[in-house]
């Protein structure tokens, strides 16, 4: 196993603003640059701390926007300069992860890459590392591998992975074929998945030999693949990188890696899944943030924000304060209050997923100053 991990390179896509966490998460201060757990450090730094012991500090690559370079490097002083890959504009996860894979394959043919989001919350590092090691073994055997999370409740905010037959993989004893990817289900379907035991939460983690990942992109999105390979060829020469990025990057297709790689690979029998038994949350909205900060105890009020001034009587939910205003709650349940100097959000846990629609409306209305 150690020899395979010697070929492992961790990739952290650090993009997206986390629009369901607006107005806390903004374009200039996205979700991954916040401490959402009270750990005293950002989600990005938490992600680094999980991956660096597996890959080594010199084998962690971060793909992020140009505007976030200074913040990322301030958070991760050990990050090697050559391992900072900057996007001129967001082009979704296939472009981000595919470019990283193409660059690393040119530098180190046969490298095994693993992609892990910068803004997820994970506890149980030993269980996480064990799952990654098994996924690396599956990748070494030629599979595109993913790590699915054993569900603890019938969640409707996550996609699901349907498991098939167990696979024989040297060095891994918990690897199964993936029958299909399933979009976010309704509650009745999620309850059926939980009871059946064959469905795992899709945590968006993908591990593969870089050449296999690129081959999968080429099968399904040949023009996107050609652009990524051309970019990678120019990347490590400062004289050619800038012109190549300006010419190629804006024209790359925007598509999530779930659709360009995972779903087609599952249909073809090339996708494997490792069951992850660690605790995981993508902190996708304020309802999940409230649950995270109250340890799942309903009826409690989570309060985030240094120096938050909150008075509460018979209330539950979450208050995030980034102002010095006094916030008083009386007899309100499952409420979400996010108070910032220039924007105030009030909703309920039930409707927390709809915050993204507010962001879309503000963007369409030209209110980019609060985004």
Brief account:
The chain has helices at 2-6, 43-55, 69-75, 92-107, 125-140, 187-196, 210-220, 222-235, 238-248, 257-267, 286-293, 355-364, and strands spanning 8-14, 60-65, 84-87, 112-115, 121-123, 144-149, 160-166, 175-182, 199-209, 271-276, 279-281, 301-304, 309-313, 317-321, 326-330, 335-339, 344-348.
Protein described:
By secondary structure, this protein is α/β, with parallel strands linked by helices. Helices cover 36% and strands 25% of the residues. The chain contains 12 helices and 17 strands. Strands 6-9-7-8-10 form a 5-stranded mixed barrel, surrounded by 4 helices. Helix 3 (69-75) links the parallel strand 2 and strand 3 (84-87). The longest helix has 16 residues, at 92-107.
Features:
17 strands, 25% strand, 371 residues, single chain, five-stranded mixed beta barrel, alpha/beta
Task: Please tally the β strands and state the result.
Answer: 17
Radius of gyration: 21 Å
| Residue runs with pLDDT of under 50 for 5 or more positions | none
Q: What is the strand arrangement across the widest sheet?
A: 6-9-7-8-10
Q: If helices are DSSP runs of H or I spanning 4 or more residues, what is the number of helices?
A: 12
What's the rounded overall pLDDT mean? Answer: 93
**Structural class label:** alpha/beta
The biggest beta sheet is recorded as: 5 strands, mixed, barrel
Give the DSSP E fraction (strand runs of 2 or more residues): 25-35%
Terminal Cα span:
45 Å
Shape: globular
Query: In percent, how helical is the residue content?
Result: 25-40%
- Secondary-structure element order, as H and E? HEHEHEHEEHEEEHEHHHHEEHEEEEEEH
